[in-house]
Write the structure tokens for this entry.
Amino acid sequence: MASGEQSVGQVGLFDGELTEEQSVAEKIEELKLEHNAIILAHNYQPPIIQEIADYVGDSLGLARKAAQTDARVVVFCGVHFMTETVYILSPDKIVLLPDLSAGCPLADMADAESVLRLKEEHPDAVVVSYVNTTASVKAVSDYCCTSANAIKVVSAVDSRKVIFVPDRNLAAYVSSVVDKEIIPFPGFCPVHEEIRASQVQFVLEEHPHAEVIAHPECTPEVISMANHVRSTSGMVEAAISSSADEFVVATEEGMLYPLNKNVPGKRFFAPAGEHICADMKKITLTKVLNALRSLEPRIVVPEEIRVKALASVERMLALG
């Protein structure tokens, strides 16, 4: 099992008397067996979706899991760009996204034409695209990266100048660590952008011994407060390895569920305010059931784009 992934079963939310949701979950299990399917869920998904998933984790970890599995059908409970990444790595599988409208504002901020214009302006630069991009953007990139390995990838590329697409906050974090010229694309995650240092501080005043775990898509002001800067796959590890008993977790609120599930005995708090990705909450049990019944909606990336996008992903994976 890849780092940051958790094997899940139908427990927790389904304890006790049989409910309508459990009935739906049982039908999902039957169809999984019938179609030789696997259900993958991102850490930000609703708790009930995490409970019926076979594996929960971050986007690239789940894409790797999809590539490794013998399952014929992959039901991906996340957003569109993540499901594209699964198909890029596993074109031989049926890849389902239960709600096609589950998109990503950050990924939508960058398009291939804009990236190509930046390449023309900086012909000596290497393009590193965050996994939170469309397949078309990955196809015109030299390398792909995740929030977990962005520093490693940018450090390893054979260029002093790097165009980093599309998240300006992740680019700023990488730039603070790596001695290279980083040319940031002006994109951002609305959820992480709206987490304010004052909101983190408000919770710290009530829990003065808490440590701060921040996602690197957060603003530099929030990052400067963090004891740990981690991707979602690293947040559980940070909480386990730390001696602290309380944490303020600066990311989408859905991450609190896998943290509480996998690190019992410690307490986790979101920054003040609401920090919810509406797209991550669109998938429901009924939509998963309908996807397995019809084997639709399917995600398919045109082969010409897939092959080019795969090259940037494989260059990343080659770095270890």
